[in-house]
From TrEMBL:
Residues 6-185 form the Thiolase N-terminal domain. NCBIfam families: PRK07516.1. Pfam families: Thiolase_C_1 (PF22691), Thiolase_N (PF00108). InterPro entries: Thiolase, Thiolase-like, Thiolase_C_2, Thiolase_N. Keywords: Acyltransferase, Transferase. Its EC number is 2.3.1.9. The keyword Transferase applies. Residues 253-388 form the Thiolase C-terminal domain. This is Acetyl-CoA acetyltransferase. It comes from Candidatus Protofrankia californiensis.
Length: 390
């Protein structure tokens, strides 16, 4: 199914980071208001609302859908639904909005992804995130998903050799890119030498993964307004050429942890539905919750074969001025990862590139972009292709 009859006409994005003065409600309200404003719409013109939050016990309020109505009284009585699909919650919300428009039930849909996390202690966060893993749900381990991806890294190193250097290059690239992103949680150009060196300020977190190989826990929200063509004021807009979802088995014993098989399926489905090839894309935002994830995602998007990601990053292919910039926003690694917000945020970052409003992040001449977002360890996988309309 392609979605090229749905446009993104508005967007909003809060800063990501440790935001003690913000609540889940305030983050949602800010992003929602900004998205409606940039769309040039009145709140009463929104037909439906979709909210993406993971929560996992991090917030006592487990029923946040109507928080969006706090953005404006004219949203009163607008249908609002909360969706969740682990770290792909934001993309799940986006897909729900797209389906509402394609079904004819709505012409303008507000999609908001948000998460408030940094108030919780490390063990509580680890417990909440491990709720997205079949085998370790219920455990309280501060390392959380880092331990799972450390096992992926260890298996990768056994099969293809030590790639600690490649992981450090990915971290350094994304921190360098994050310097140009005003929304990013971490805006420090740490450099390759720091990222590849284990020390007091860059300790081992789990297995071969250093602190610089792990994305930060963040607060934040992002929002978009989806519209059927002709249903919103004529302003900058991006078309969703394709949006694909593919799920894998939940038990790790039923998945090859290095194959990222469902991720491959989702990515190929998106390219085929959009009628594009990798060479048609000008940038990609991928799910780099850990640097090992981005390394394997180079294989997913078609930049290399199995085990070849190290050469890709060492050769500068994925740099902002490379053949295919990957995560020019800084990715989850530098921008941050407020779980429910991430999928929406990735799309907002791509949109800003395509309408040439990315500022210092701008990839010159970008008109087509890809986005890959995953929930769990490649269990729920979403891939999309976006194209500038005007």
């Amino acid at each position: 199914m392609d979605h090229d009859d749905v446009e993104i006409v508005g967007w909003g994005h809060t800063p990501f980071g440790r935001l003690p003065d913000e609540t889940l409600e305030s983050l949602i309200v800010t992003a929602a208001r900004d998205a409606i404003t940039t769309a040039g719409l009145q709140p009463r013109e929104i037909d439906e609302i979709v909210v993406g939050t993971y929560n996992g016990g991090l917030q006592p309020l487990a029923f946040p859908s109507s928080l969006v109505l706090q953005a404006d009284d004219d949203l009163l009585f607008t249908p609002a639904t909360r969706v969740e699909n682990a770290c792909a919650t934001g993309s799940a919300a986006l897909l729900a909005g797209v389906r509402a428009i394609r079904s004819g039930q709505a012409r303008r849909v507000l999609v908001v992804g948000a998460e408030k996390m940094t108030h919780a202690p490390a063990e509580a966060i680890g417990h909440a995130l491990l709720g997205a893993d079949y085998d370790r749900a219920g455990e309280s381990v501060s390392a959380g998903f880092a331990q799972l991806f450390a096992e992926v890294a260890e298996a990768y190193f056994v099969k293809y050799g030590d790639h600690g250097d490649a992981l450090a290059r990915i971290a350094a690239k994304n921190h360098r890119n994050g310097m140009a992103n005003p929304y990013a949680h971490l805006r420090s150009n740490l450099g390759y030498e720091f990222c590849c060196t284990v020390g007091p300020h860059n300790p081992i977190v789990a297995g071969p993964l250093r602190r610089t190989d792990c994305c930060p826990i963040s607060d934040g929200a992002a929002a978009v307004v989806l519209a059927a063509p002709g249903s919103a004021p004529r302003g900058p807009a991006v078309r969703i050429r394709a949006l694909a979802q593919v799920n894998d088995f939940l038990p790790a014993s039923r998945r090859d942890l290095l194959a990222f098989a469902a991720a491959h399926w989702a990515w190929q489905a998106a390219l085929e539905r959009a009628g594009v090839r990798l060479s048609d894309l000008h940038l990609v935002e991928v799910h780099d919750c850990f640097t090992i994830a981005e390394l394997i995602e180079y294989e997913v998007v078609g930049l290399c074969g199995p085990g070849g990601g190290g050469e890709v990053v060492a050769g500068g292919v994925v740099d902002r001025d490379g053949t295919l910039p990957v995560n020019p926003s800084g990715g989850l690694k530098a921008k941050g990862h407020p779980v429910g917000a991430t999928g929406v945020s990735q799309h907002v970052m791509a949109i800003l590139q395509l309408i040439e409003r990315a500022g210092a992040m701008q990839v010159p001449g970008a008109t087509v972009a890809g986005v890959f977002n995953m929930g769990g360890l490649t269990v729920a996988n979403y891939a999309s292709v976006l194209e500038r309309v005007r």
